[in-house]
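Field reference: sequence -> structure
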Amino acid sequence: MLYNSPFRHVDTKENLQKVKAYNNVIVFGTGNLGNIVIAALKKEGINVLFLTDNNRSKWNTEIHGYKVVPPKELKKTNNETPIILASDLTFPYMHRQLKEMGLTNVFDADFLLEKLDLEIDDLHKMGVYWSKVKIKQKIDLYLYDINSQKNKNSELNVRCVDLVLTEKCSLKCAGCSNLMQYYAKPVDEDFDQCIKSIDTFMNTIDYVYEIRVLGGEPLMYKRIDEVIKHLYKYENYGKLQINTNGTICPKPEKMEVFKNDKVFFDISDYGEKSRNLDKLVSELKRLGIRYNAARSLEWQDCGRIIETNRKEEHNKEVFGNCCENQGLTILHGKLYLCPFQANATNLKAIPYFTKEIIELENHNRDELRDLIHDLYFKTEYLEACKSCNGRDHNVAKIEAAVQMKTPVKYDFINIKI
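Structure field:
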């Protein structure tokens, strides 16, 4: 496949030459992006010495003939071998990890990915299970994130924001990562509050790559069509994603509102539980609306509110490896840094940590920009992390969408700071 990034990185040619000056490199990351990076390095004639990853289950194994070592082993390299960061989600944490070890011979993978010419079959042989379309989407988002980090002192560009329209859901899943199983009396977002939050946020940030409309089940929100129309007024975002579980197919007149190049339906397929999946997919095809329906058999066991006594270093690790540590969430007029934090706080299951939650209507634009910037770019962990089971590859798996008859009961956790 021939990939040409829409994002330009000024130092890519220089970094490629720097890396080529060494005999070997180390790749930090063994997921899909890591496999793409390895393939790109091979094409450039750059030798990979070994791999490393924060996923403990991969330590002391071999992938593509390369040994995978724990990150702490990298300290022995004494900056003599370049380390290429190959994670589209956790590279900011990787930078902090390596800096604390005194390692500075570190490169993001943008210099390899900005222009990429690799056969899709070869990538699949390397273990990349993403489709051609998803490879482009993932690399686009990764390179956007790199730019956002590099330009963070002059621009406020963020990865994504979850716009929660309702706490109500058409399924009653145990282990829901957004904690819907804990809501005994779920409510819809107030429409006027929702529009006000959208306006305040969108007029404050410079750009958001992806707006994710969700709940609960967002298609249960009766005024979702009006929310979508309002979002169309803004140009400073890339994709408008509707996260749904395939249980609801809106009436044709409401489906029409989603006919827009920016809209993408991300459908979780839970088999028979997603009772209107076929109908919804048929409508999306008829209207030419982009979508992905992925069969989901298991989840990470991250949908639990727990009490821990982790040390600060461990909480930093939990936050740094989390797939949602850049997942801004708007819920009832407040801006949070992750969906777990948002819902655990909203449920009053954990204390309200004022310094980590932004009341969108309580600040002028300049104040709000500073608050969002610091929350998004400077946070090393949240107090809410102390009550979270983690959301990364080190967390155990559970069966997806197991249904419950009653909400999960919980006690208030008085987190000690």
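Note: Residues 6 and 111 are 14 Å apart (CA to CA).
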